[in-house]
Task: inverse folding
């Protein structure tokens, strides 16, 4: 009985120590959880668990996120505002980034194996990190029309010496009224993040974060 109680407590503690981006807001409407965000295939008790393997395709859209699995695609205009909301506020210090990858056809059939470009970073302000329950940005006005995976990533750097934790989700969006830009630089995922990246292996408790570099390619700007 004691061992069962200990296991139950451990699982509860593990779950509470994590978080997941599960809701998407567009057009001023906050949509139901997982309506436009791909739901990972982890068991319920690990639904909000991180990815830590830099060589895994799970880095794209989380575990099992290479398939749509019934996720709907939301229509948006280039320049529109959107928000990702978590089940609970981020409380592991680290940066947050937004990426996009254009599907060759319908995004519901896209596994994210193509090129990704970064559209925004939230890094540290001084030694304070952007630990929130929601993150808001805009679809770049100049990107071509089409269907995209819109990926949000929070990198937990709270445990120096252990692999940093990637908290990831992807929304499916159809962009209209766009431009003709060719976003760059781009990177493949996995491949965009390396264990030698200064922003990946940094000890956030040692010294100033004033010169911190968020891992991944530079942010694309129209």
Result:
């Amino acid at each position: 009985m004691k061992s069962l109680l200990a296991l139950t407590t451990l699982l509860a503690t593990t779950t509470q120590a994590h978080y997941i981006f599960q809701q998407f807001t567009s057009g001023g409407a906050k949509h139901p959880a997982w309506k436009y965000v791909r739901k990972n295939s982890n068991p319920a008790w690990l639904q909000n668990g991180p990815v830590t393997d830099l060589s895994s395709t799970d880095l794209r859209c989380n575990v099992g996120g290479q398939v749509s699995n019934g996720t709907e695609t939301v229509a948006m205009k280039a320049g529109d505002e959107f928000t990702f909301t978590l089940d609970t506020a981020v409380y592991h210090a680290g940066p947050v980034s937004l990426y996009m990858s254009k599907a060759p056809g319908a995004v519901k059939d896209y596994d994210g194996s193509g090129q990704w470009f970064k559209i925004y970073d939230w890094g540290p302000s001084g030694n304070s990190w952007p630990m929130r329950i929601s993150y808001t940005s805009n679809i770049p006005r100049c990107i071509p029309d089409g269907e995209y995976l819109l990926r949000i990533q929070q990198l937990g750097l709270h445990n120096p010496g252990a692999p940093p934790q990637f908290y990831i989700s992807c929304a499916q969006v159809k962009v209209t009224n766009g431009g003709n830009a060719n976003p760059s630089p781009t990177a493949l995922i996995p491949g965009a993040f390396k264990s030698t990246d200064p922003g990946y292996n940094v000890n956030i408790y040692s010294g100033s974060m004033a010169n911190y570099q968020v891992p991944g390619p530079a942010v694309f700007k129209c």
Q: What stands out?
A: The first strand starts at residue 21 and ends at 26. The mean pLDDT is 91. The first helix runs from residue 2 to 16.
